[in-house]
Design brief:
Elements lengths: L24 E11 L5 H12 L9 H25 L10 H21 L3 E10 L3 H10 L2 E8 L6 H16 L6 E4 L7 H15 L7 E7 L3 H5 L4 H16 L6 E6 L12 H10 L5 E5 L8 H17 L4 E5 L6 H14 L8
Parallel strand pairs: 1-2, 1-3, 3-4, 5-6, 5-7, 7-8
């Protein structure tokens, strides 16, 4: 039997056997992609199975895709993915960097929002795949007395395979609640001034150090080009983020370019591909010094720490490049936390008043 929240009380005129009701609160639930629980074969297989079985991620006919996934892909890929995760694993906490950073972001936002709104706000995080699950965190919030939940997918640019599937899972979790809370989802914040400024400041800080890149590669996670043609706004939002970033930095087109990484499967994806473009810049354009930043990721993860900082770096250096600088994600930097808090404040209007 579920234990009542510590501040739960019975209504004044309720009968003696009426269940205690917790004080009403507003929940702010952050959501990120997810992470395996460990790097061993079975942990990786469970995680990859959940991820790659999502029809928002892979939309091939299930009868065809599941046969390929279960019999071929999931017999081999857990080994290679596990090896990649091991290379970046937070050994001290025995978890992935994405888990560590998302928890730190949540803690910083909890502190900031509690200072503004008081104890009537509850801030937590969930993962679309793996743990902590969206369903478990929605349940915790409703049991704690959250009658309103603001759901915040931590993806600046909207894509069906990221923000869309995170929202789907949130709505599915609400279906299991006896008393459904009122719900809001945060719109993509790819052009929010606070976000653009935080990005620009992170780049300015990196460039103020002992580096002198000839061009900045703004690398976004890729998706099949077919999704763009079907109406997904991700590509356009990525391009606008780069344009606004360029304008904020006061740069020219020759100083910055947009690319896409993480290609999977045989069909054409959004181009240019980061791994090929960095090699082309070195071979054809003679670039010897580049920097790479990944604005689509709110926290460093396997795609940035392993793919960019290892695979893409190797592609550039193998083609003749000499200096490769990876500029970390915004993570839990003060400027990023303030930008996220600003977005949350805007979305809480009409629900909560700052103290």
């Amino acid at each position: 039997m579920t234990q009542p929240a510590s501040d739960a009380t019975c209504p004044a005129h309720a009968p003696k056997n009426h269940p205690a009701i917790p004080r009403e609160k507003i929940g702010v639930l952050l959501a990120n992609l997810g992470t395996p629980d460990a790097t061993d074969y079975w942990s990786m297989r469970r995680y990859l199975n959940e991820f790659l079985s999502d029809r928002r991620v892979i939309d091939y006919a299930p009868w065809k895709w599941q046969l390929l996934l279960q019999l071929i892909i999931l017999t081999k890929r857990p080994f290679t993915s596990g090896k990649a995760y091991k290379s970046i694993w937070n050994e001290e906490l025995d978890e992935s960097p994405l888990m560590t950073i998302t928890r730190d972001q949540t803690g910083a936002l909890r502190t900031a929002l509690t200072a503004e709104y008081g104890d009537d706000i509850m801030v937590d995080f969930c993962m679309r795949y793996g743990n902590p699950s969206t369903k478990s965190k929605v349940r915790e919030m409703t049991e704690a007395g959250c009658t309103r939940i603001l759901f915040f997918p931590l993806y600046p640019q909207y894509a069906g395979a990221t923000s869309g599937t995170a929202n789907d899972q949130f709505f599915r979790a609400l279906m299991d609640e006896t008393r459904q809370p009122a719900a809001r989802t945060v719109q993509p914040y790819f052009d929010h001034p606070e976000y653009i400024d935080a990005l620009a400041r992170s780049i300015e800080t990196a460039y103020a150090g002992d580096i002198n890149p000839e061009i900045l590669i703004v690398s976004y996670h890729g998706m099949p080009k077919r999704y763009l043609m079907q109406g997904d706004p991700y590509h356009c939002q990525c391009q606008k983020t780069t344009r606004l970033l360029k304008e904020r930095l006061g740069w020219t087109d020759t100083q910055i370019t947009t690319t896409f990484q993480s290609v999977f499967g045989p069909e054409e994806w959004l181009q240019p591909y980061t791994v090929k473009e960095v090699a082309r810049l070195a071979k054809e354009d003679g670039k010897r010094r580049i920097a790479v930043v990944a604005p689509a990721f709110s926290a460093d993860c396997i795609e940035t720490l392993e793919e960019i900082n290892e695979e893409i770096r190797e592609s550039f250096e193998h083609a003749g490049g000499e200096e490769f600088t990876y500029i970390p994600c915004l993570n839990d930097s003060p400027a990023h936390i303030e930008a996220l808090a600003h977005v949350i404040r805007e979305n809480l209007q009409g629900w909560a008043s700052r103290s």
